[in-house]
Amino acid sequence: MEKLGVDIKLLIAQITNFILFFIVFKKLVSKPFKNFLDDERKKEELKEKLDSAIKEFEVKKQSDEKNFKEKFEKEKQKIIKETREEAEKKRTEMLNETEEEIGRLKTKTKEELEKSRQIMEKQLKKDIVTLGIEIVRTGFKNYLTPQTMKELTATMIKNAVKEN
Amino acid sequence: MEKTIIYSAYKLDQSEVDLLTRKFPFIDQSNLENVIDKTLIAGVVIYHHSQIIDLSLKGRLNNLEKKLYEIDR
After folding, report:
1. Which GO terms describe its cellular component (chain B) (predicted)?
2. ipTM greater than cut 0.95
3. Which residues of B touch A156 (CB under 8 A)?
4. Do B43 and A153 touch (CB under 8 A)?
């Protein structure tokens, strides 16, 4: 070995040095570094999970918002439609009531007019009769001569037997 | 006997009183009063006891007036 130029003591020392370095490196550098890397990886995974959860939440939120808006819009249209229908129904009812009231008023007015007409007609007839009789009465008073009066009296007495 | 009162538009003469007595025998000429009422126009109204016999033109016209009022068209 000495002929090859290899120092055995040095070799052993180098090997021992290497082994010691390896052990120290593994315990003091490699393991912590590996733990650090694992921690970073775990953090990264957690971050990805959180991002994913946030994204999912955002998507769900948008979807819920969209659904809510659609539902709200539907409800709004439904209320508007119902309100319009109700208003139309009320309008029709009021029109019908007004027409009926007008009809009733017309009938009542007609009846009252007819009643008034009948009363006036009756009064007019009465006035005509009264006037006619008064004309006849006045005519008799002014134009009956004494002779005619006597003849009339005699006729009325003679006819009295048949009546009384 | 109760008095008979005869209302007429003018003073009745004897012939008219006789005619009345013939038609209405209850009339006693001795107990008779003739009252002038020109509103009767013609004819007579006889009041005897509670009886009233209207033979006047005024009465006829009044009856006619009542009947005309009652006519319904």
Report:
1. membrane
2. no
3. 42-44, 55-57, 60
4. yes
